[in-house]
């Protein structure tokens, strides 16, 4: 059934305290629950008690100690009001569950012999009967009985003995933050003293043998804890903070109170096994989950429609953190690239929805780029509009006013209105209106006055035909024709559909630099010519827009090359890119981004705007042609690569990573000119770190020179699952399109292809469908059939991961009629399956509804 925001009603009963006892067994775990409950004073009295529960075998239930016979249905059970006392009462239930059969990885499940949990959003109902909704907050006392050496739950340990342990979490929390872990684990330990002097023990639990891969995550954790104190005034609030790394995990990580559970991919790192990008992601995700302790746990969501209240804010906070730890401009460009590839794509298709959705069928389908990344952009705009000081005052008020509560977006907006005196009614439309706004630009210059006229419009999205104007902060600066900045950055506040802004006292017509720092998540439709873009690439003082100018120029040149295949690679673009490469004022990480070409999908979309859909294979050809032309223009590539080598031991710091990123890009160019990929082979043979290994291996796969390297890599790393994932994924993403389907087919038949582990499945099926555009969109539809076969096979096992992968089809309406018909056939084939999960039914149904 469809759940609607407008149907929200407060819970009929509240839970003050939860007592849980687990007797662990893979096939028959016993969970005894004792809940102290009472009628909610803010709800209608005399209601039945409804408890959620799925896949639970009820052994016994009692109210105030008296046994009661109940017949659960598929989604829970109902205790009639008549069977309940007037005031507070105690609910008790004993249920049996089978963690080893739980392949959906929600609730209590097993991963490589260890017990672990994932309760967000609605996994707790697979552990015991409970009002499983975030506005029911309780303290938890947990006893675990099991023969595992390590038995963990939230909060502080209170007692333990051989075969048992007891935990107590004094902070009232919603059930989605409950966690339990039991297994043969070892910990990497450290400590932290908070600003007010609380001593906190820090423990990262991993499988024996992985202890030496925890140092970076621990360091990132301590830096996150300090940063939240200095930047937000937020201290940690328990004596213990634990992280557990788990191999089987549907998502990235989970912020359970005091016991974060992570996909091991985002914890474990060593120079030999992790790339620079892995280190960066570990830092960002460790920070993200830690920051949730205040934005998510202390202040949580009233209902799941408010998900962006915690996720958008926490992503914004982790982005600020990473920007502070590394290069701000580089981080901003990376975040915008990710927003455009994932969120703009979502916003432009059948799965578009507002940052705060109005309805859903399966909430797991709404952990999306829109809720997370666009949600973070909305906070970023608020920050820009009110300024850093007012932002901090508003956040202080938010924590003071709402600590311990389950809140809504209205509460959040009100805090900002009260702290700043601004009326945010119109701004709040960002939360309810889906789609990416288009920004239009008109200019005029008369006398000494430059007038900028900005227009805004948002195309219709599913269920939202009419769009209203938003508040759009447009950071703008002006340059003169010599390249000097004549008007520094000003924040223009666009609130109307069409609005003019004037700049006086100018000697000549200026060149505008608009949407600096990507000040709003919009598409800027400015018909700038190549010369202006090259000018901004060379002269803009705003690093984001400097990059953006080069990026847009490259994208437009590529689009022209696709439309007319005999168009030569534009010499002006090539000269501008080489000039950027030679600019001593730019750092290597930034140069790597400027020289990094847009994705095939980005070019495809650009062509599609004013021409019929191109063949993805032709987009790929244009990218190779431009790459080759650029490579020919840089004569001394080998020397440049050598000069970028980082001396000494490997370190994942941002400067070293930036040098490796640029040298990897140059190696990619050089490999275009070497039929046998000699230099990439040499790098692969001699490097001691995974970053350069993967750069070289990717180029060998791309150029069809990888047989020996792949065999050597496999032999060396076959026992390290995270590294082996890279071996699978590089082949799925980079094998040339003619053989890509056959390659992924063979990979899924490989002895190491363990498809029930989401990381491994995503490494092949996800990397192919989302990362190998020309291969996936092969004209005969073999790529589509491959994906559909896997979705059909996986759905009964793991619905959440299936539904997520099905998103690869969300762009289907963008393609030519032949491909659309082939995709439609596969979507139909999936939709026709009996007993398709709710997750996949919803996603496939929405994709099929695409206009
Ligand atoms: N709250 C987690 C995070 O953002 C994500 C949990 C997602 N879980 C899910 N079932 N979709 O850090
Ligand atoms: Zn989060």
UniProtKB/TrEMBL annotation:
Biological process per Gene Ontology, one example term: proteolysis
Record EC number: 3.4.11.2
Protein's gene: pepN
Domain Peptidase M1 alanyl aminopeptidase Ig-like fold: 435-526
Domain Aminopeptidase N-like N-terminal intervals: 102-177
Stated family: Belongs to the peptidase M1 family.
One example GO MF annotation: metallopeptidase activity
Cofactor(s) it depends on: Zn(2+)
Origin: domain of life: Bacteria
Claim: Nucleotide-binding is one of the keywords in the record: no
CDD domains assigned: M1_APN
NCBIfam families in the record: pepN_proteo
Key words of the record: Aminopeptidase, Hydrolase, Metal-binding, Metalloprotease, Protease, Zinc
Domain (Peptidase M1 membrane alanine aminopeptidase): residue spans on this chain: 216-429
Domain Peptidase M1 alanyl aminopeptidase C-terminal as annotated: residue spans: 530-848
Signal peptide as annotated in the record: none
Name under which the protein is recorded: Aminopeptidase N
Organism encoding this protein: Halovulum marinum
InterPro entries linked to this entry: Aminopeptidase_N-like_N, Aminopeptidase_N-like_N_sf, PepN_Ig-like_sf, Peptidase_M1, Peptidase_M1_dom, Peptidase_M1_pepN, Peptidase_M1_pepN_C, Peptidase_M1_pepN_C_sf
TM region positions: none
Residue stretches in coiled coil: none
Catalytically driven reaction(s): Release of an N-terminal amino acid, Xaa-|-Yaa- from a peptide, amide or arylamide. Xaa is preferably Ala, but may be most amino acids including Pro (slow action). When a terminal hydrophobic residue is followed by a prolyl residue, the two may be released as an intact Xaa-Pro dipeptide
